[in-house]
Amino acid sequence: MLKDSWGRKITYLRISVTDRCNFRCVYCMPPEGLVWQPHSAIMSYEEIAELVRVAAAQGVKRVRLTGGEPLVRADLPLLIRMLADIPGIEDLSLTTNATLLERYAVELAQAGLNRVNISLDTLNAEKFAQITRGGSLERVIRGIDAAERAGLLPIKINAVAMRGINDDEFFDLARLTTDHPWHLRFIELMPLGNQKPWGPEFPSPQQAFISIQEIFDLLSPLGLVPEDGLAGSGPAIEYRLAGGLGKIGFISPLSEHTFCQRCNRLRLTADGYLRPCLMSNQEIPVLPTLRSGKSVLPVLQEAVAAKPESHKLATESAPEGRKMIQIGG
Ligand code: SAM
Ligand code: SF4
C-alpha cells in the first residue's frame, strides 16, 4: 500500500509516454516549440510496464497515459496490451487530442484500453486552429465518433476555460451533454505552460484565467443538477443538465481548496522522473534504478513520501521548470 504523509492512498499513476506533440496549443507550449528529448532518454515500454507492475502490487489500480500527444508514439497499442495484462490494473485510460484517434480507436480498444479523455476547448473550427496552432476540429470530431464506436466509454471531454477565448461557448459546450452521454469537464487554466503572450488575437494568459466558480455561475441559468457525491476518485465535481444524457464536471486545481485533499496520484514523465505534485518542481529520477536492474519500490515510496499536503500557488509563484507538455497533463 502506498500512503503519503497526509494519509492519502496513492492508487493512480499518470504516465507521459512522450514529450512530443502534433499540436502546439497556446497554453501548453511556446510557439517556437521545445527541444525534444532524445529517444535514449525516453522510457521504453518494458521500463514503463516494470514500474507499473511494482506500483500495482502496492495498490495502484488506475493508469492514464498522456503526453505530449500519446498517439504520436509508435506502437502505443503494444504498451496498452502490456499494461492491461498487469494484475491489479482495473482502469486503463488515455488523454489525447484525438487527431489520430480515428486511425487507432479500434486497435486501442482491442489492446485493452478502457476509455479516453479528449481535449476540446472550442466548437469553432477557426478558433480551434488558432488555439492548437494548426489543428483540425473536423479530425477531432471524427476521432470522438471513432472512440464511441470502439466502446472507449465514457467519453470525457476536457475544455480549458479561457476568458476572451472560449467563454462565449460555455453554454454550447455544456449543452453537448444534452444529447450525448459525454462527460464535459471545464478545467481552470494553469500557469504551467506558456505564460508569455500567445499572439495578437489572444488576451494575456493572466487575463484569460477564469475561475471554476465563475464558470459555474455563468452556467447556472442552464439548471445544473448535482450528481450524488464526488466523482469517484477523480478531481471533477459533477452535475447534469435536467434530462441530459451526459455530465458536466468542474475541475479547479487552482481555486478550490479540497482539490489537493483528494489527490491520489503520482505522475511519471516520459524521461523517467516521478513527480509527486503537478504544481511543484520536485522530481525523483526512477530511470537509472530501472536500468540498473534494482527494485524501484524504494523510489516509488520516496516519491509518495515527498507528496506535499497541497500546492502552494496561492502563496508562491508558479513553478518555472517544465512546461505542461513535458510533464504530462
Ligand atoms: N496531448 C494530449 C491532450 O491534449 O489531450 C495529452 C496531453 S495534454 C498536456 C493533457 C491536458 O492538459 C489537455 O487536456 C490540455 O488541455 C491540458 N493542459 C495543457 N496545458 C494546460 C494549462 N496550461 N492549463 C490547464 N490545462 C492544460
Ligand atoms: Fe499537445 Fe496536448 Fe499540449 Fe495541446 S495540450 S500542445 S495537444 S500536449
Short description:
This protein is α/β, with parallel strands linked by helices. It has helices at residues 45-57, 76-84, 101-111, 125-132, 137-149, 170-179, 205-208, 212-219, 287-292, 297-305, 324-327, and strands spanning 12-16, 62-66, 91-96, 115-119, 156-161, 183-188, 224-226, 237-241, 247-251, 265-268, 273-275, 284-285.
Please characterize this protein's 3D structure.
It is a single chain. The protein is of the alpha/beta class and 329 residues long. The chain has one domain (12-327): Alpha-Beta Barrel (TIM Barrel). The chain contains 11 helices and 12 strands. It has a 12-stranded mixed β-sheet. β5 (156-161), α6 (170-179) and β6 (183-188) form a beta-alpha-beta unit. It starts with 11 loop residues before the first strand and ends with a helix. S-adenosylmethionine binds next to β3, β5 and α11.
End-to-end distance: 25 Å
CATH superfamily: Aldolase class I
> How much of the residues is beta strand, in percent?
15-25%
Q: Give the strand order, joined by hyphens, for the main sheet.
A: 7-8-9-6-5-4-3-2-1-10-11-12
CATH architecture group name: Alpha-Beta Barrel
User: Compounds present?
Assistant: S-adenosylmethionine, iron/sulfur cluster
Number of helices: 11
Question: How many structural units, i.e. domains?
Answer: 1
- Structural class designation: alpha/beta
What is the multimeric organization of the chains shown? single chain
Label the overall shape.
globular
